[in-house]
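lol forgot to send this yesterday, sorry. struct tokens for the thing we talked abt
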């Protein structure tokens, strides 16, 4: 199936025989694989799907998965993993395929780089609407154990946004960029949230059906703004998470080209939200 822009996307799931079967992304929903850890739950218990987006993360993705596995058995939910290769140019795809074969996880492969926003929105569409979802970037920069605090709050909120508990771990340039970005979106959307692009926990239905035009990390502000416009009663909380810094490679977030692109995408998202607001106001 051809994806928007002419690229192709494949969704794969490891079978019981260890081979990879390819499914088209127009299937009605993701059939998630077996749970990571058996915590004696019944089939009706809650499920947490950990989505792991990767772009050129060959050196980090296996450590990311091991970090998830080390915490999964301590959570009061069944845990599954969906690994995404966003058209990587290194050996990320091979690593993901190996991890799926080993642990029975699901995977999504973009044949070209589509960006984290597009990849995540495609993943959300194919997760059961009642499942809990969290994002764990394949760079292994976030301490996955932080999810415990989010899970403990889940009964009171539909969406829990994370804020960085130890910002000193980030280089000065990245912290300045984060502050500038947050101040901008707070003004544009009236947000009081402390952070948007960190760990989060939400029911899949919170974002399903929302169309987003911005790409990169700018898609988060547009996505959250539209979700609030669609459902003003959305219960949103905040919780801290801990970052460890990248063990390998460099952050792509503050490269000059990435910063310039972020500015353009924030503006693009804001215009889209303004149009959406008009439709909501008119009752369209």
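and heres what i got for the seq, position by position
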């Amino acid at each position: 199936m051809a994806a928007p822009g002419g690229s192709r996307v494949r969704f794969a799931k490891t079978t019981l025989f260890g081979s990879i079967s390819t499914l088209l992304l127009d299937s009605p929903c993701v059939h998630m694989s077996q749970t990571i850890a058996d915590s004696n739950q019944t089939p009706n218990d809650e499920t947490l799907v950990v989505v792991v987006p990767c772009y050129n993360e060959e050196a980090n993705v296996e450590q990311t998965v091991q970090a998830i596995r080390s915490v999964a058995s301590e959570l009061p939910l069944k845990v599954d993993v969906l690994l995404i290769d966003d058209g990587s140019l290194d050996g990320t795809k091979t690593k993901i395929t190996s991890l799926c074969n080993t642990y029975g996880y699901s995977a999504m492969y973009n044949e070209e780089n589509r960006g984290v926003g597009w990849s995540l929105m495609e993943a959300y569409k194919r997760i059961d609407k009642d499942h809990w979802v969290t994002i764990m970037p394949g760079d292994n920069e976030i301490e996955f154990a932080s999810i415990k605090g989010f899970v403990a709050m889940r009964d009171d909120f539909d969406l829990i946004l994370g804020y960085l508990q130890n910002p000193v771990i980030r280089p000065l340039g990245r912290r300045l960029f984060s502050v500038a970005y947050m101040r901008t979106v707070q003004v544009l959307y009236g947000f009081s949230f402390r952070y948007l692009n960190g760990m989060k926990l939400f029911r899949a239905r919170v974002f399903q059906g929302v169309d987003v035009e911005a790409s990169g990390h700018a898609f988060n502000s547009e996505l959250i703004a539209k979700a609030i416009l669609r459902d003003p009663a959305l219960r949103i909380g905040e919780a801290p998470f801990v970052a460890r810094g990248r063990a390998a490679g460099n952050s792509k977030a503050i490269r000059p080209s990435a910063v310039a692109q972020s500015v353009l995408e924030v503006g693009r998202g804001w215009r889209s939200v303004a149009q959406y607001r008009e439709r909501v106001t008119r009752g369209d």
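Confidence is low (pLDDT under 50) at residues 1-7, 14-43. anyway ping me if u want another try
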